[in-house]
Structures are given as structure tokens and as C-alpha cells.
Amino acid sequence: MCRNKMHIYIAVLCLVAVSALIVGCEGSAAKAPASSAKKSGPYKLDDEGFITNWLIVGPFPNPGEEPNYKGFDTDYLKGYGGEENYVPANGMQIAKDDGTKVKWAPFESIDGRLINFFSVEHLGLGADVTDNILTYSACWLDCENDMNVQIRVGSDDGYKLWLDHKLIGNQHVYRPAEQDQESYDIKLSKGMHLVLIKVDQGVGEFKFMMRVVTADGTKAPGITVWN
Ligand SMILES: [Ca+2]
Predict the structure, then answer these.
(1) Which of 3, 101, 134, 192 is a good FRET partner for 161, with 20 to 30 A between their CA atoms?
(2) Do 24 and 104 reside in the same domain of the chain?
(3) Are residues 28 and 95 located together in one domain of the fold?
(4) Domain range enclosing 7
(5) 211-224 average pLDDT score
(6) Do 24 and 132 belong together in one domain?
(7) Which of 23-32, 36-45, 113-122, 217-226 has the lowest average pLDDT?
(8) What's the whole-number average pLDDT of the chain?
(9) CA angle at residue 157 from 184 to 63, to 5 degrees?
(10) What's the 227 CA to ligand 1 centre distance in angstroms?
(11) Residue 194 C-alpha to ligand 1 middle, in angstroms?
(12) Residue 19 domain flag
């Protein structure tokens, strides 16, 4: 009798221990943040502070006519948490309304500053797909220390810019891209910061450039780029 009770006691203890182990494993997996997806890097800013390594996805539709192209205010990431909350990853897919899917993939600009979307092979632009489209591009800035910087943008055509899930730039414009068309004063803390930019296209050229500099316009020190 005593031995039987002991066996039952040991069996119950084992069951509790195994259950705790299973719950523990599930708990730690569930806590893993979405942003823990493996990133590529670190990449350097170029000599003038331009970001040359991005994750890019698209194209998405941008119907209408200047100055009221409709894609600019359409949240194509709404099925995935929305533009403000979105965390991209290499290989992540986005389903479009027409049933097709597009996928985030990396792009490195060969000539440095300008990200020319017609040169981004995985977007499949050119031929019949040149107008009435838009894209999203993203990267992370990894800062060695807390610092004050300026993020400067040039674009063809307009853009919305989010930093760490906050909209900091909103330029619904149609223009050729030039260096430093806008400048945003930013306080960055030590660590990773997500940059997400949506660039829209009416007709003609389709490109943007972004650099991270100090107030005097020189490359910000201690920052690397991940995607
Ligand atoms: Ca254009």
C-alpha cells in the first residue's frame, strides 16, 4: 500500500515536471518578438551619409491623376497591422487586392545615393509597369550611442516616412528627386531604429535618396544599417 502510494506520488511529480517544461518552452517561443527575424548587416552609410542597403517591396497600385493619386493614402499593409505598426522582414509576403503577392527582398544601390526603383530587379518594373505605382522600403539604423541627427530625404515622387512606427514625413508632391529636399531633426537612442518609407509614382522617374547626417550635413558617426 505504502509502495503504491509512493509510485503514484512519483508519477504525479513526473507529470507536473514534464508539463512545466512544455509550458515553459511554449512561453518563451510565444514571447519572441516579430522583429527578431534575422537581419543582414551591418552595412555602412556611404561617405556622405546615404543609406545604400534597403529591403524593398512592391509594386502596389497608385490609380488616379496628379495631384490626387489614390495610393498615397491607401494603407497596403492594413492586413498586417497597418503601415504604422508594420515590421518588415526579408522574404515576408504581402497579398494584394488582386490576389497576387509581392515579397520583401534586399537591394543594394550600386551608385550610392539614388535608389532607382527601375533598377530594383525583384520589383519587376519597366516595360508596361512604369506609372501609377508605389513601393515600401525599410531598414534599421543601429546607433552606438544616443545622438541627435538629421534624416534628409529626396524623392520622385512623394513619400510618407515612419521612424520607429511614427509618421515623421508626409510629402504628397510630384517632382524630380534632389538631395536634401526635406530634413528632419531626430533624436536617436542607442540601439536599433526602424525606418519605413513609402514612395509613390505618377509618371516618369521613380526614385528616392535618404541620408543620415549631423547638423552640419556630414555623415552621422557611429551608425550602421541593417536590413
Ligand atoms: Ca515620377
Answers:
(1) 101
(2) no
(3) no
(4) 2-32
(5) 98
(6) no
(7) 23-32
(8) 88
(9) 130
(10) 25
(11) 25
(12) yes
Taking CB atoms within 8 Å and a gap of at least 24, the contacts of 29-35 are 34/87, 34/89, 35/87, 35/192, 35/194
26 CA distance to ligand 1 centroid (A)? Answer: 49
How many domains are contained in the chain?
2
Read off the pLDDT of residues 43-56 as tens digits, 9 standing for 90 and up: 999 999 999 999 99
List, for residues 176-217, the tens digit of each pLDDT value: 999 999 999 999 999 999 999 999 999 999 999 999 999 999
Distance 45 CA to ligand 1 centre (A): 25
How far away, in angstroms, is 98 Cα from ligand 1 center?
A: 24
As residues whose CB is below 5 A from the ion ligand 1, the structure lists 156-157, 204-205
Shared domain check, 130 and 18: no
Cα-to-centroid distance, 155 and ligand 1 (Å)? 9
What are the residues whose beta carbons fall under 8 Å from the beta carbon of 210, sequence distance 6 or more? 50, 51, 151, 152, 153, 154, 195, 197
Q: Could you tell me if residue 203 is inside a domain?
A: yes
Centroid of ligand 1 to alpha carbon of 119 (angstroms) = 14
> Both 75 and 139 in a single domain?
yes
Same domain for 26 and 49, yes or no, is no
